[in-house]
Design a protein that fits this description.
710 residues, alpha+beta, Beta-Lactamase, five-stranded antiparallel β-sheet, 22% strand
Length: 710
């Protein structure tokens, strides 16, 4: 019995060894199957995440790992989980992965990455290095772990970490196989990254090439390469073909074929420049014209750069070709436009000089005023008119308004504000006072611009004209008075007769009054009647003398409302004796419903007097027959008053009718030619109109109108 016990023990040992070997064999087979499937995943994978997740899944499903994961180092030197499989239950979320450079990081993954060597924990339950994570690991059934670095160029960029469900799961052979797997995984990751980088680079290159081609198309710029020895075009970009109007073909490689398309007058210069660049081994730049197959002419600009070999000899030229036809045409058009603009600018400067000189001669300044911004601009003549220095004074409305005469400022501002409010043009006359206290009369026009609240206008110095007009008015008044005196001289006898009549009546009535009073029985009633006649004839004489004095007095015009019929009657009274002396029958037709007119009584009396005297003189010929003078008044258009003086003389001479109212024109041997001219100036000054026309069947009629008071 005892002899069989060693045999039994040896048998048990053999059985146990066989089981151990079989278990190792099964583990090895499993590891090999796992490695094999991982290799298949490495071959099939096209994406990095896809590969990492497949490896982790295979290690769990086929390799029997409790959990497997891949971690990468990120840009902040921290570590992040990239892929994992198996039972995790938040374990990875709770692990703090320190930087591979951190000396305090003792976890398996951190150590493997930091050292670049595998890190194995045979028994998590007893290994003191795993103390920090032990409880969480044991709670999830982790018995041992193996961290394998993933390296590229001997530098770890990540790690593959495995967790088994039992201690001592990773023996030497297993670690060797998994280390090889980790290396294959790292190679696969790098390969996928390289492939992805190459794809990105190729895509970027294609994109850049597309951009380049599109940019060349948009800018009409082609690129080329030319072999010097073979004198052959070795490369043309697509745009180069388009520029030459050719389709890609073998004959375009012939430099001579393309050379013949250059215009003969440009070809020799092109060849000379290229040959000099080859000889001197330098860049060249040339412009030339090229005839397309359709006969159109294009302008080209080419730049070439030499490529030399190791002996320093030029073997190729590379360069660009730009179709500059549009630029050439644009440049030509621009040169023409510039020449045209220069001519226009010269003409503008000449016009501005003429305008400035014209403004200086006419004493007319120009201005512009923006109502919104207050911006004001003045011409040089405007400054001169206002006596201001353009180098010292900045134009503004306040500077302008300060120069206006205080008596005219309110009226000007009222006109201006009304124009601003209504958006309308304005025109006004006012006085200004220059800094040296000189008063000037100016006339200003303002026009509202079409593009906004801005006025542009002129200001004219009319001081000399105003003074001349005043002198002319004074001279005209003197001439009118002289004319009146001359007329009164002609009427002296008639006036004397008209005055003598009431004076004789006064004397006769005075004698009668004395007789009635000196009688034994004074007749008071008769004496009173005689005294009344004395008063009436005295007043009549006084009216005649008053009218004569008014006509001969030198006074300024006084515009007042008056009845034109009264003016006519007063003149008729003065002319009574003249009518009788020349045997002129006077007829009046004075409208009773006339409105009043605004005028100077003396000047209007002179007009009526001159027209009556003109009519009398026109009928002076003894052969004229009956002499009849008609004076009419009537209402005219728009409330005006019409006065007509018609005679029965020979009428108007057609040859001189157009000059009838000219100064110093007369048809009378003894006439001065001023009467009718003065009449017209007086009527014009009153805002009326004077004209002459035939008085059918014979004679002439002179008519004038006067407007109603505003």
């Amino acid at each position: 019995m005892k002899s069989h016990e060693p045999t039994k023990e040896r048998l048990l040992v053999e059985i146990a060894e066989r089981m151990r070997v079989e278990e190792q064999l099964r583990a090895a087979n499993r590891t090999l199957r796992t490695i094999n499937r991982c290799n298949e995943a490495l071959v099939r994978a096209t994406e990095e995440l896809e590969l990492a997740e497949a490896i982790c899944r295979i290690l769990v499903e086929d390799g029997g790992m409790r959990m497997a994961w891949v971690g990468y180092r990120d840009v902040n030197a921290a570590w992040r989980r990239f892929a994992h499989a198996g039972f995790d239950d938040g374990y990875l979320d709770g692990i703090e992965l320190a930087s591979a450079k951190a000396h305090t990081a003792h976890g398996p993954t951190a150590v493997a990455i930091r050292t670049g060597e595998p890190y194995s924990t045979d028994d998590i339950a007893t290994d003191p290095r795993f103390r920090r994570w032990r409880d969480e690991a044991l709670r999830r059934g982790y018995g041992s772990s193996l961290a394998l670095p993933l390296k590229s160029d001997w530098v770890a960029f990540g790690a593959l970490t495995l967790y088994a469900d039992r201690p001592h799961a990773f023996d030497e052979h297993t670690r060797s196989h998994f280390t090889e797997l980790a290396n294959d995984l790292a190679y696969g990751v790098i390969t996928i990254r390289t492939r992805a980088d190459r794809a990105r680079v190729e895509a970027e290159l294609r994109r850049i090439e597309a951009y380049l081609e599109e940019g060349q198309r948009l800018t009409h710029t082609g690129s080329w390469a030319w072999n010097v020895a073979r004198r052959e075009n070795v490369y043309w970009s697509p745009e180069n073909y388009r520029i030459f109007g050719l389709a890609p073909a073998k004959d375009t490689k012939s430099f001579e074929t393309v050379l013949q398309r250059i215009l003969p007058e440009d070809r020799a210069n092109f060849i000379q420049i290229v040959d000099a660049a080859i000889r001197e081994k330098r860049d060249f730049e040339v412009e030339w014209r090229f005839s397309l197959p359709d006969g159109s002419l294009r302008y080209h600009h080419s730049v070439g750069h030499p490529v030399v070999d190791e002996d320093g000899e030029v073997v190729e030229f590379v360069g660009t070709l730009v179709d500059v036809t549009e630029q050439h045409l644009a440049r030509t058009a621009l040169e023409r436009e510039n020449a045209k603009r220069r001519r226009a600018e010269d003409e503008l400067r000449r016009s501005e000089a003429f305008l400035a000189e014209g403004q200086r001669i006419s004493r007319t300044g120009s201005w512009a005023w923006n109502v919104t911004t207050g911006e004001v601009s003045w011409s040089a003549e405007h400054f001169r008119i206002f006596g201001l220095d353009p180098n010292v004074t900045t134009p503004s409305y306040s500077v302008f308004a300060d120069r206006i005469h205080p008596e005219d400022r309110a009226a000007f501002e009222d006109i201006l504000q009304r124009a601003v409010r209504d958006g309308s043009d304005f025109e006004c006359d006012f006085r200004i006072v220059t800094p040296d206290r000189v008063t000037k009369y100016v006339h200003s026009l303002g026009h509202i611009a079409a593009n906004g609240p801005e006025f542009i206008g002129t200001v004219m110095d009319v001081t000399e004209r105003r003074l001349g007009e005043e002198a002319l008015r004074t001279a005209l008044a003197d001439l009118e008075r002289a004319s009146r005196l001359s007329t009164m001289g002609q009427l002296t006898a008639s006036i004397a007769h008209e005055v003598n009549q009431p004076l004789a009546a006064i004397i006769t009535n005075a004698d009668a009054c004395l007789l009635w009073l000196e009688a034994d029985q004074p007749n008071i009633d008769e004496a009173r009647e005689a005294a009344t006649r004395i008063v009436r004839n005295g007043l009549r004489a006084a009216d005649i003398i008053k009218s004569v004095r008014a006509l001969t007095r030198k006074s300024t015009p006084e515009m007042v409302p008056l009845d034109i019929n009264d003016v006519i009657r007063e003149v008729i009274v003065l002319m009574g004796a003249e009518f009788r002396r020349h045997a002129v029958r006077i007829e009046t037709s004075l409208a009773s419903n006339l409105g009043s007119v605004l005028g100077d009584r003396v000047q209007l009396q002179q007009v009526v007097l001159n027209l009556m005297m003109n009519g009398i003189e026109a009928m002076a010929d003894p052969m004229n027959g009956q002499r009849q003078l008609q004076i009419r008044s009537a209402n005219g258009e728009s409330g005006s008053v019409l006065v007509a003086v018609a005679d029965s003389g020979p009428g108007l001479d057609p040859a001189g009718a157009d000059r009838l109212f000219e100064a110093f024109f007369t048809t009378k041997p003894e006439g001065m030619g001023m009467g009718l001219s003065i009449c017209r100036s007086i009527v014009d000054a009153h805002g009326g109109r004077l004209w002459a026309s035939p008085n059918l069947p014979h004679g002439a009629v002179f008519q004038f109108t006067l407007p109603a008071p505003a």
